Known about the structure:
There is one protein chain. The chain is mostly helical. It is built from six helices and no strands.
Amino acid sequence: MWNYLWPALLIVGGNVCYHLLAKITPTGVNPFVTLSVTYLVSAATCLVLSLAAVGTQGFAAAVRQVNWTGWLLGVVIVGLEFGSISLYRVGWDISIGSLVTNIALAVCLLAIGLLFFHETISLKQMLGALLCVGGLVLLNLK
């Protein structure tokens, strides 16, 4: 059970910290400079962890296995991070901004799972998605 739960707990805990830090990032600081520092720390952390995890194959061999998805993910993450900082800078509340974007994300991924990965969806899941869309409407009513 723990092997199933720990990744979800890590994501939730990480996202709580992430959104708190994005919300309190000073508005006078250039977001791309902030992200540069963020990614330097991330790169150093990943380098240390990957050196510990590559085992006998060696770091260079592990790097050669990385395909285009690793490069594109780096670009996508910058957009994600910049979008989050910008979301809070333009006035979204931390209690609503993340909720709205994550619900919208879940609905988009549900459609992508159905269309491109041929995943199945139950009636309960479809009703849940419709409730999420309804929740988006309610959250954004003025």
